[in-house]
Amino acid sequence: MLKTILIVEDSPVMQRLLAKLLEKQDYTVLTADSGEIGIEHAQEYLPDLILLDIILPEIDGYKVCRQLKGDHRTKNIPIIFISTLDSPRDKVEGFEAGGIDYITKPFQPSEVLLRVRTHLRIQHLQDELEEKNQQLIVEKLKTERLLGHVLPESVVQELLATGGYAPQLFTDTTVCFADIVDFTSASSELSPGVIIRELNEIFTAFDKITHAGNCERMKTIGDAYLFVSGVPTPDPDHAVNVARAALKMVEFLKERNRRVGISWEIRVGISSGPLVGGVVGTEKYLYDIFGDTVNIAARVEKSAQPLQINVSSASYELLKDSFLLSNGKEVEMKGKGQQMIYTLLGHL
């Protein structure tokens, strides 16, 4: 691709000399015989390089350079001063104004061509580097967005900052399992496309409910939806958050069943207590939770009827002042013996 060079020089003889020299090397040449015209040409044509005299009518080369470097459109154009002024002070002022090189008159043509070629090459490499940096920024943002879809925000930030995430013990949390009733048998009569569409619509609605309610979806396990509050960000209202979200999920399905041909029901189990949260995997990250609280929530869910929300005794103690709950009943819980289970009926 042909490069364009702007010559800002008030001497007609010097201007023609430089123009012929550069045109012989297949450069496209623009000329200006004053600083003001030079600025106008630079802003309009955006040349690849500027050869700039210092002693010019009305506005000198230093001021031209500073003005161009202060304009976002022209600030990256390399400027080579070419002048009869040859004192160290003159050269320093040229570099301070933003010039990248300084050639004194009279000059050797070969020197001018070599410096022009060198700085065009440097600028080309800088442009390539900037383009690659922008590509890296775009890819980094994509990576952060993708991580944000599968990991909590605070976990993503720690992973990006440190390259890892230390497992944490969370003492005050509430866990909820929501499992679609008879999904396996019902889905055997539906096409794969319909099954995925139905799950996607239901779980997308659940995602909106949990996000709005200060809860965090952990994962879906087939037709089961697991979410938590108090992890990875502690929240004193963790039990209330989960209870409200569970009630909204049941209401969503009831409303959806009235207007959609395919009906679904869920059983819901809630339990509160300590658990451990951490990132599992090194290539495919998964933030997961572990502990007795998770296991109890899963077993409490098994005791629920369709469209019923059952809670453990630990959750009952945290919810009894804000929600309407049934009288407790004892159930045999695997590994736990007899445990009290309560049904969440609504808000007080």
What does this structure look like?
- This protein is of the alpha/beta class.
- Helices cover 46% and strands 26% of the residues.
- The chain has eleven helices and 14 strands.
- It has helices at 12-23, 35-45, 61-69, 88-97, 109-150, 153-162, 183-187, 192-212, 238-259, 292-302, 313-319; strands spanning 4-8, 28-32, 49-52, 79-83, 101-104, 168-180, 216-221, 224-229, 266-280, 286-290, 308-312, 323-325, 329-333, 337-347.
- Strand 13 and strand 14 form a beta hairpin.
- The model has no long low-confidence stretch (mean pLDDT 92).
For the largest beta-sheet, the strand count, sense and barrel status come to: 9 strands, mixed
Number of strands: 14
Per CATH, what is the topology of the largest domain?
A: Alpha-Beta Plaits
Low-pLDDT residue spans: none
Order of helices and strands: EHEHEHEHEHHEHHEEHEEHEHEEE
User: What is the overall number of helices?
Assistant: 11
User: How much strand content do the residues show?
Assistant: 25-35%
How many domain units? Answer: 2
Q: What shape does the CA trace take? A: rod-shaped
| Radius of gyration based on Cα positions | 35 Å
Going by CATH, the homologous superfamily of the largest domain would be: Nucleotide cyclase, GGDEF domain
**What is the average per-residue confidence, as pLDDT, rounded to a whole number?**
92
* CA-CA gap between termini: 75 Å
Subcellular location: Membrane
Keywords: Coiled coil, Lyase, Membrane, Nucleotide-binding, Phosphoprotein, Transmembrane, Transmembrane helix
Protein name: CheY-like receiver and GGDEF domain-containing response regulator
GO molecular function: adenylate cyclase activity; nucleotide binding
